[in-house]
Design goal:
It is a single chain. By secondary structure, this protein is mostly helical. Helix content is about 55%, strand content about 5%. It contains 11 helices and 3 strands. Strands 1-3-2 form a 3-stranded antiparallel β-sheet.
């Protein structure tokens, strides 16, 4: 289990190159869609913008020229929040539903080898500041004394985590003291069992050991999930560039 109590971009940092490509493709496609939604009279002599900066400059020029109407802005908002965003959200819901076709193999690895970029002190500070995931994590997980201790128990898997972690990013390994010898959860059915355990894996983008019961689901859903989140991120950013219609 590779976890993070911060934004999902941090949780999936190992996918940064792929995510950057997905962001670029999503930005290009969304800018073209916005352009096609733009009244023809405003598009004279231009082609679709190729960057957020160019799009913002054109918005400023249209506003200064007095040709940007509330109706046009509302059309863009509908495009971003309804036409483009809803199908993406639905695809993520379907991916989550598809997860139900797989089940935990009860190997216990995700309980005995969790990793994050944060040390215990940082996680506790985040928990104290109200981070819900951090609260759940520190409520059950204990740190390995050091990476070598984790490596002694899971040599191949620690190497796998290290290889999937961006260069320069720290890794801290943790384990749950409640997992039993038969690999089952000692907190099963107890209110002390965190929601993060009940919902793991909450996305195909987290690291999983090769024999994980959800490995096939991850393989089948990885690219689509990455593209979906990249698209939602782009839509959110471009929505913030639009002038208010109030």
């Amino acid at each position: 289990m590779v976890v993070s109590s911060s934004a999902w971009q941090s949780q999936w940092a190992a996918l940064k190159p792929e995510y950057a490509k997905a962001i670029k493709l999503a930005l290009q496609a969304t800018l073209v869609a916005l352009w096609e939604e733009t009244p023809a009279a405003m598009r004279v002599g231009k082609s679709a913008p190729t960057s957020k900066k160019e799009w913002q400059q054109w918005l400023a020029n249209w506003q200064q020229a007095g040709v940007l109407s509330p109706k046009t802005t509302q059309g863009w908002q509908t495009l971003l929040t309804e036409t483009l965003a809803k199908p993406v959200a639905q695809s993520l819901k379907q991916i989550e539903a598809n997860k139900q076709q797989s089940e935990c193999g009860q190997c216990g690895v995700c309980c005995r080898l969790a990793s994050t970029e944060h040390d215990v002190a940082t996680l506790q500070a985040m928990a104290d500041a109200g981070d819900e995931f951090a609260k759940q994590f520190v409520s059950v997980m204990l740190p390995y004394e050091n990476t070598d201790k984790a490596r002694q128990r899971f040599p191949d898997l620690v190497v796998s985590v290290e290889k999937s972690t961006p260069e320069g990013q720290p890794i801290h390994f943790y384990h749950c003291p409640y997992v039993q010898e038969n690999h089952k959860c000692g907190l099963w059915g107890s209110p002390k069992r965190p929601a993060m355990c009940a919902t793991y894996p909450d996305t195909p983008l987290v690291w999983m050991q090769p024999d994980c019961g959800w490995a096939d689901w991850k393989s089948e859903s990885l690219t689509t999930t990455l593209q979906a989140h990249a698209t939602l991120a782009v839509l959110d950013v471009l929505l913030s560039t639009l002038p208010s219609t109030a």
